[in-house]
Amino acid sequence: MRTLLTALVVCASLGDASVAAAGSSVSVSVVDLVERAVDYAGQTVTVEGELVGDYGVRSGQWMWTQLNGDSYVTSPLREGGSVSTANIGVGVRMPVDAARNLDPPGGYRHRGPVVRITGVWRYHDPSRAGETYLDVTSLTVMEPGRRLSEDTAPLSIVVGVLLLVAAGGMGLLWRRP
Amino acid sequence: MLIRPVAEDLKVMAFYLGRIFVVVAAAGIAPLVWAAAAREWHPFSSFVLMVGGYGLLGAAGLRLGGDERHLDWSHGMVVVALTWLLVPAIGAIPLALSGHFARPLDAYFDAVSGLTTTGLSLLGDVDHLASSLNFWRHLLQFLGGQGIVVAALSIFAGGGASALYIGEARDERILPSVTSTARFIWAVSAVHLAFGVTALALVGWLALGFEPLRAWFHGLMTFFAAFDTGGFSPQSTSIGYYHSAAFESVTSILMVAGAMSFGVHYALWRGPRRAVFRNLETRTILSTFGLTLVLTAVGLAATGWFTEAGSVARQGLFHVLSAHTGTGFATVSSTEMSHWGGLAFGGIAIAMSLGGMGSSTAGGVKSLRTGLAIKTVANQIKQVLLPERAVVGTVFHQSGRRHLTPELAQSVMVVSLLYVALYLLGAGVGLAHGLSLEPALFESVSASANVGLSVGVTSPGMPTSLEVVYILQMWAGRLEFIAVFSLFGFLYAWVRGR
Predict the structure, then answer these.
(1) Tens of pLDDT along A156-171?
(2) pLDDT for position A10
(3) What residues of chain A lie within 8 A of the CB of B306, using their CB?
(4) Helix, strand, or coil here: A51?
(5) ipTM
(6) pLDDT at position B361 over 90
(7) Structure confidence at residue A98 (pLDDT)
(8) CA dist., res. B148 & res. B24, Å (int)
(9) CB-based contact B41:A108 (threshold 8 Å)
């Protein structure tokens, strides 16, 4: 329900343009977008992934963040996922209204919201002195963000403290004349 | 005849290694406190283990070593070489326990990469890494860039300081004593830290719209990686994450400051400033920077991916600066960089291989050696062309008039050739693993010159043998060979000596 509401709010805030853009877009993965970046230059594409990092709101108009499309989106390391590749992500820019109801971005404590984004792939955009990013025209939240659990490692603490005690003992011996 | 080391040799080395471990144990408390403050309890536990490990090694070294004794040249070199292998071994513990590495060797790779200020990484999912672990990775770069041994020297004065100082590839003594020079290096860094972090955090907060705490976090991490020409980043898309010319500009200033020798910093602080621009080293680095910038810009323009000159200038300038200073930041993906090819590839690769100034935090051949090597070759050519009895001038300017003696020329050529050999060795191993020439050479130069730019070869799951070779390249490249050869010689003497 919350997902649906967010999607409705976001689509409403972006207006008709989002509908038109989504209609003529090409569905690609983030991996494909990164690997064949030049092929999609200037095209409207639809990608899915997790929003990570920060939500940087600039001039009250645009929000910048990063969209990741790697294996960690579906299998976070702290939920039993395994290390496969480095992160694969692209920068995204969206109207600030679109970001208003988003859950916190992905980081150590959160798996960020998984979103489907349609936007124009600005490849080395001359208006931004050669930056590459996805200019969002519509956004749908596919899966809300969630808090990631954290376990502790008491054995590490116990062993570490024992080592420190041993080190302290040796230090005292060394100081003896 | 080689003399087999005796117990006394081991004791004196154990003593100095112990001192260095004590300093690193103290440094390890910083991420431990950070983890507690951020309530990151899993990393906190692993930092306790790490500090315990460093503490025990430090105490054991001091205990075994007994009393302080004079450290001679060869012992100092061996101590330095061992320090740069053993410190990352313990420093890798929190990384290995984080679950972000496929195997312990990968965590060790990252720790070596951090300490040697290389910046290549095998970390999976950096975008979800705990802030305290990110802090530790970046702090390793700061410790490595400043020189762990320099850190120890600034705290403990004592016999053998010169050997340790030079073993860590710092041959410029700015002030009369090594200890005062080490303290000056830390003073310069502290001033840059204050200004750099403030500037980056303000850009992050006011221009990029980050929350104040996050802006400060990004500022601190980027400062460590930029000033110490390391190249790690708290986000997977490196400096491209920020999408900001202002952030790139501040970062660029810090990269340049990091690649300047501390002698130049001293001259800029205390004067005479004009003399800096008369130095062969300064002139060489400005020339090679200009040359590689032109090559890269022409190469980027030829790709046809950029539609106007401003984009080529911004991308070209940032990446050449990043490569020449040995930092390794990027604003494009490694996939895109692997497709640059041609002149852009050549420009970046040459810039990486040449590196920054001597006695700085940068790696590579270093600009003074490059300048002297060119002068040596030019003199040889002149000697051949001029009449037999003609005398070719051998004076150059480097903080005053100096003579390019045959011994100096020989030393410069030997070390420069060793770097070339190291670049080719890694490229050869890469080729043996089925890589094509360009990525094999690019990644090898990046590892040996402690740069960290990557065209995608260095990634989780890379072949173990290639990974080990890159670790050795990062280590040998950072220490500029002498300490490494001393360690090998020491081990050989232990086995074959009498």
Answers:
(1) 999 999 999 999 988 7
(2) 46
(3) 124, 126, 130
(4) strand
(5) 0.90
(6) no
(7) 87
(8) 8
(9) no
Three-class HEC string of chain A: CHHHHHHHHHHHHHCHHHHHHHHCCEECCHHHHHHCHHHHCCCEEEEEEEEEEEEEEECCCEEEEEEECCCCCCCCHHHCCCCCCCCCEEEEEEEHHHHCCCCCCECCCEECCEEEEEEEEEEEEHHHCCEEEEEEEEEEEEECCEECCCCCCHHHHHHHHHHHHHHHHHHHHHHCC
Count CB atoms within 10 A of the CB of residue B102: 17
Token digits of residue A156:
């590490």
Neighbouring C-beta atoms of residue A24, cutoff 10 Å: 9
Interval B97-139: pLDDT, tens: 999 999 999 999 999 999 999 999 999 999 999 999 999 999 9
Which of A133-137, B244-248, B384-388 shows the lowest mean pLDDT across its residues?
B384-388
Distance CA B184, CA B178 (A): 10
Distance CA B249, CA B201 (A): 13
Instruction: Quote the CA–CA distance of B164 and B158 in Å, as a whole number.
Output: 11
Q: Which of B191, B366, B352 is CA-nearest to residue B265?
A: B191
Greatest alpha-carbon span in chain A? 84
For A69, the token pair is 């499309």
B-chain CB neighbours of A29 within 8 Å are none
Beta bridge partners of A143: A114
Which of B448, B454, B452, B441 lies closest to B229, judged by CA? Answer: B452
Cβ–Cβ gap A162/B336 under 8 Å: no
Report the alpha-carbon distance of residue B5 to residue B405 in Å, rounded: 34
| Residues of chain A with C-beta less than 8 angstroms from the C-beta of B217 | none
Q: Rounded distance, CA B346 to CA B350, Å?
A: 6
pTM for the model: 0.92
Which among A58, A82, A170 has the least Cβ separation from residue B209?
A58
Dist CA A120 CA B277 (whole Å): 47
Nearest to A137 by CA among A19, A6, A7, A5: A19
CA distance B59 to chain A (A): 5
B465's tokens:
């043998």
**A87-97: pLDDT as tens digits:** 999 999 999 99
Interchain CB distance below 8 Å, B100 and A83 = yes
Would you give the distance in Å from CA A127 to the centre of its chain? 25
What pLDDT is stored for residue B167 in this prediction? 63
Contact residues for B438 (Cβ-Cβ < 8 A; gap 6+): B338, B341, B345, B455
Cβ-Cβ contacts under 8 Å for A136 (sequence gap 6 or more): A92, A93, A94, A95, A98, A117, A118, A119
- Which residue from B48, B127, B331 is facing A157, i.e. has the nearest CB? B48
In a mutational test of the A interface, the residue from B16, B21, B49, B205 whose CB has the highest number of chain A CBs within 10 Å is B49
Residue owning tokens 């501040």: B250
Give per-residue pLDDT as tens, B47-58. Answer: 999 999 999 999
The token pair at B384 is: 């051949």
